[in-house]
Amino acid sequence: MTLIEHLSELRTRLFIGLVSWIVAAGIAFAFRFDLLEWLRAPLPPDFTLNAFGVLEPFLVSMNISAFFGLVLAAPMIGTQVWGFIAPALYQEEKRWAVPFVFFTAAAFALGVVFARYVVLPLALPILLGFLGSEANVLLSIGDYISKLILYMAVFGILFEMPVLAFLLARLGFINAAIMREYRRYAIVVGCVAAAVVTPTGDPFNFALVALPLVVLYELSILVVRASQRRPVDQLSLEEK
């Protein structure tokens, strides 16, 4: 394919991915009240959400719709990404299309669920209770939803690490030895990223982000190692 044909295909696939996202966001918008109640659940029961601007309820609805629309549209977007890179792959590598799309979407959704049911219920009471009874916390619904979506998006991306590592290993870009060699640097980068995501400075919330990241990196090493193992029959044939 020529450069113009590649650009034309890229434009088409971007358009399909964007339309899929818009349609999925429209579905999420129809269920925005249920999603808002789901997002509100980690809060202590005595806390209420307040709107401090005319546009805030509308912007919150758009944020919820856009984020959960992305989660719903992830399989279609993943399909378009794979379809664009597939012509550059060997025939053996192309058979990973369905697993790649499925596990990419599933890993992102799993990261979102992990943040909602594990991280946020533990982190929010600590964050809101730092000053105890000395301060009456008024929560802005816009600030609250944006922070929750940020946490969920970060964990969704973090949970993609084993999937991405498996793909890169199958394509020959990385191996388990390289990942073990750069483990210390990866942990440092992960800790810096965790500190950026949790700017409160308390070690508990920092650990809620940093520890899963380290675990996911170690899991990625195991996934890469497993992906590089060849069947015994194949090895015996090669030795002959």
Defining traits:
240 residues; mainly alpha; 11 helices; 2 strands; flat
Secondary-structure map:
Elements: H1 3-30, H2 32-40, E1 49-50, H3 56-85, H4 91-94, H5 97-128, E2 139-140, H6 141-158, H7 161-170, H8 176-181, H9 183-197, H10 203-227, H11 232-239
Parallel strand pairs: 1-2
Explain how this protein is built.
- The protein has 240 residues and is mainly alpha-helical.
- It has two domains: 1-156, no CATH class; 160-228, no CATH class.
- 77% of the residues lie in helices and 2% in strands.
- It contains eleven helices and two strands, in the order ααβαααβαααααα.
- It has a two-stranded parallel sheet.
- α3 (56-85) packs parallel to α6, α5 (97-128) crosses α6 and α7 runs parallel beside α10.
- The chain starts with a helix and ends with a helix.
- 27% of the residues are buried.
Residue fraction in strands? under 5%
Name the assembly state: single chain
Class based on secondary structure composition and strand pairing: mainly alpha
**Strand sequence of the main sheet, in spatial order?**
1-2
Concise overview:
The chain has helices at residues 3-30, 32-40, 56-85, 91-94, 97-128, 141-158, 161-170, 176-181, 183-197, 203-227, 232-239; strands at residues 49-50, 139-140. With 240 residues, the protein is mostly helical. It folds into 2 domains: 1-156, no CATH class; 160-228, no CATH class.
